């Protein structure tokens, strides 16, 4: 009896948590369809598709989104390549300065964004670097890098070193061994790191606001629009970004299942 | 090339590691030759340098001193991917993201073998290891024994000059182990490739090998065929490591022709082949199954010792007796459990133990 009651309580609790987590997303999606008349988009006034049709009607917003996507893609690629190499090094080798490297990775993850943003700004100012696209990409690469290192390192540490030796033994050179054996083995870590890097970059506000110069990004534009009212196009863009994320997650789950049942 | 070029030759091979600022010699000077088509075992306790020796043959470690030759050619500085030998790893090291077929074809693809030939050879080898029909399986969907055979096929399909196996059955349970021992022997005969087999299990080495190198502390203690290793251990270490043996120590009384007369206690008289002067102390060994136990005085011409039965253990097809000699030495005797067994010794009885002189050996 008690087990049954416990089961039911757990069931209800689980659904409450899911509801709690999903409600902001549901509201975001819903208000992308709101046929609002006033300036603010906070009360339901009827259903419409017009914000989807006029998705790119606000030039400033469209530019900011394009900027954010370019910055996210470039910084994700950079952080993934550099982070994977660093993750391999710290996961596999003992070298002079490994302790310092481990500490810096931890520091990069745990430093408050405000501190990181402020210190990056003073660095760029003292180096006389003009703020804009480049400085934002450098900043985003920097804070995503550590997350890629951590996810890749976890895979590298769990990797049987004799796998690579077996590849060498069977005639593969150093590069072929990396391409055919090492990389596929650590790929889940690389992919997880890349997704984290993209997600961190596309919605970063704090660090970006220090180093953006006059450059606008999607989050910066939205925060700027709060006082005058956020247009429903923002909800639509948010919905689309969320939708792409869900599709990626499903694709990942399906391919993982195919791999195990094949 | 001439028939008598050895498949593998180690010449004074030494391997030193730097551990915690100190040099450690894992292998202290090993020289041996392994013939074409031979089933050769490296046998010894954990940490004696077997894996290190094998990894130098494979090319994963470079010797600190000495030469490694394959078919007469010096390959000491040749990387593993350029050596015509393959290895079966203790952890199998199957590529987890590839299926059985892709795993087995890996080596042939690296050598740019034509697709049709790859298909033929992979198919053939999978048949030999009895895995036809499992080509699409991933390693993690297979049992330990099956993974073991994939690892074997992946190495053998390349038709290497020699196959190195590092404790390949270590991860299997006893029953599967024995099955795979027979299987490995069959496969080796079928493909006719030189096998170098590393194990710490003496019974495995004795049943499978053509020749065995018994290693201890970085050195080869004895290199011989299984029969000789078992019957004529060359050192105290080998005698103690292989099977159960009795180690005795006594003083030489006299030399009678080829035999030494060795005295332990006043009723004891041991005859053993060897050379030593009267008064010398010698160590000798005799296997438990070579000893006869009796309650009456044995005939002359045999080695004879007297003692008290301290323990009798019934082990199914035979009994094991522990007999304590006057000086405290304990001797183990195995006696067949035949119906008409003449031995009626009980615990506490005083008995005679006897064996033929040629069944005991002096040790260095
Ligand atoms: N990479 C290494 N660094 C330091 N010492 C090692 C290394 N590899 C092996 N050793 C040492 O060398 C000795 C022999 O090891 P190994 O060849 O693995 O023995 P076995 O395979 O017979 O158990 C051991 O004492 C081991 O600790
Ligand atoms: Mg070993």
UniProtKB/TrEMBL annotation, chain A:
GO biological process: transmembrane transport
Cellular component terms per the entry's GO annotation: plasma membrane
Keywords recorded for this protein, A-Z: Cell membrane, Membrane, Transmembrane, Transmembrane helix, Transport
Ranges annotated as spanning the membrane: 12-33, 69-91, 103-127, 133-156, 177-202, 236-254
Membrane topology of the entry: Multi-pass membrane protein
Compartment(s) where it occurs, according to its Swiss-Prot or TrEMBL record: Cell membrane
Family: Belongs to the binding-protein-dependent transport system permease family. CysTW subfamily.
Protein name as annotated: ABC transporter permease
Organism in which the protein naturally occurs: Herbidospora galbida
From TrEMBL, chain B:
Pfam family, one: ABC_tran
EC top class named in words: translocase
Gene Ontology cellular component annotations, sorted alphabetically: ATP-binding cassette (ABC) transporter complex
Presence of keyword Amino-acid biosynthesis: no
One term of GO molecular function: ATP binding
Catalysed reactions, as listed in the record: ATP + H2O + polyamine-[polyamine-binding protein]Side 1 = ADP + phosphate + polyamineSide 2 + [polyamine-binding protein]Side 1
Residue ranges the record marks as coiled coil: none
Superkingdom: Bacteria
Keyword Transport among UniProt keywords: yes
ABC transporter domain sequence ranges: 8-242
EC number: 7.6.2.11
Keywords: ATP-binding, Cell membrane, Membrane, Nucleotide-binding, Translocase, Transport
Subunit structure and binding partners: The complex is composed of two ATP-binding proteins (PotA), two transmembrane proteins (PotB and PotC) and a solute-binding protein (PotD).
Family: Belongs to the ABC transporter superfamily. Spermidine/putrescine importer (TC 3.A.1.11.1) family.
Function: Part of the ABC transporter complex PotABCD involved in spermidine/putrescine import. Responsible for energy coupling to the transport system.
Protein's name in the database: Spermidine/putrescine import ATP-binding protein PotA
Organism (species): Herbidospora galbida
Upper classification of the organism: Bacteria, Bacillati, Actinomycetota, Actinomycetes, Streptosporangiales
């Amino acid at each position: 009896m008690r087990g049954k009651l416990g089961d039911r309580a757990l069931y209800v609790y689980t659904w409450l948590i899911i509801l709690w987590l999903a409600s902001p997303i549901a509201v975001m999606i819903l208000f992308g369809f709101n046929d609002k008349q006033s300036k603010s988009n906070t009360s339901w006034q009827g259903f419409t598709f017009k914000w989807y049709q006029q998705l790119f009607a606000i030039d400033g917003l469209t530019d900011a989104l394009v900027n954010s996507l370019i910055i996210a893609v470039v910084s994700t690629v950079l952080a993934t390549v550099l982070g994977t190499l660093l993750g391999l090094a710290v996961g596999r080798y003992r070298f002079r300065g490994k302790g310092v490297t481990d500490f810096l990775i931890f520091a990069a993850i745990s430093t408050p964004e405000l501190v990181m943003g402020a210190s990056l700004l003073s660095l760029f100012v003292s180096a006389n670097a003009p703020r804009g696209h480049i400085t934002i990409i450098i900043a985003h690469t920097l804070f995503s890098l550590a997350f890629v290192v951590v996810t890749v390192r976890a895979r590298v540490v769990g990797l049987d070193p004799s796998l690579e030796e077996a590849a060498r033994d069977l005639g593969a050179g150093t590069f072929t061994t990396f391409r055919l054996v090492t990389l596929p083995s650590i790929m889940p870590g690389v992919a997880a790191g890349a997704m984290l890097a993209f997600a961190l970059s596309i919605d970063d506000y704090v660090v970006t606001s220090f180093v953006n110069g006059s450059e606008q990004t999607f989050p910066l534009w939205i925060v700027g629009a709060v006082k005058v009212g956020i247009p429903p196009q923002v909800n639509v863009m948010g919905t689309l970004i969320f939708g792409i994320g869900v599709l990626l997650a499903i694709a990942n789950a399906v391919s993982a299942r195919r791999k195990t049942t094949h | 090339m001439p028939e008598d070029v050895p498949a593998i030759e180690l010449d004074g091979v030494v391997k030193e590691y730097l551990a915690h600022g100190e040099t450690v010699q894992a292998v202290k000077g090993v020289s041996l030759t392994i013939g074409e088509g031979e089933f050769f075992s490296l046998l010894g306790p954990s940490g004696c340098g077997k894996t290190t020796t094998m990894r130098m043959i494979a090319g994963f470690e470079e010797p600190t001193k000495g030469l490694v030759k394959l078919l007469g050619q010096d390959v000491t500085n040749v990387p593993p991917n350029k050596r015509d030998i393959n290895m079966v790893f203790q952890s199998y090291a199957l590529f987890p993201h590839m299926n059985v077929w892709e795993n087995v074809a890996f080596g042939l693809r690296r050598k740019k073998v034509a697709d049709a030939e790859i298909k033929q050879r992979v198919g053939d080898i999978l048949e030999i290891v009895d895995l036809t029909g499992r080509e699409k399986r991933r390693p993690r969907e297979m049992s330990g024994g099956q993974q073991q055979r994939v690892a074997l096929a992946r190495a053998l399909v390349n038709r290497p000059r020699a196959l190195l196996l590092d404790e390949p059955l270590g991860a299997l349970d006893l029953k599967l182990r024995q099955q795979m021992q027979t299987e490995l022997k069959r496969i080796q005969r079928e493909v006719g490739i030189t096998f170098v087999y590393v194990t710490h299990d003496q019974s495995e080495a004795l049943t499978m090998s053509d020749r065995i190198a018994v290693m201890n502390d970085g050195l080869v203690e004895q290199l011989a065929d299984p029969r000789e290793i078992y019957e004529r251990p060359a050192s105290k270490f080998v005698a103690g490591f292989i099977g159960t043996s009795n180690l005795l120590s006594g003083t030489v009384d006299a030399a009678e022709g080829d035999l030494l007369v060795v005295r332990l206690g006043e009723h004891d008289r041991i005859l053993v082949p060897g050379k030593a002067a009267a008064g010398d102390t010698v160590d000798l060994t005799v296997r438990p199954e070579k000893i006869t136990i009796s309650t009456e005085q044995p005939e002359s011409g045999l080695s004879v010792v007297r003692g008290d039965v301290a323990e009798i253990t019934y082990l199914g097809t035979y009994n094991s007796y522990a007999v304590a000699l006057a000086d405290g030495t304990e001797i183990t005797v195995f006696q067949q459990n035949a119906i008409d067994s003449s031995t009626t010794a009980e615990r506490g009885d005083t008995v005679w133990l006897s064996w033929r002189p040629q069944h005991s050996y002096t040790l260095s």
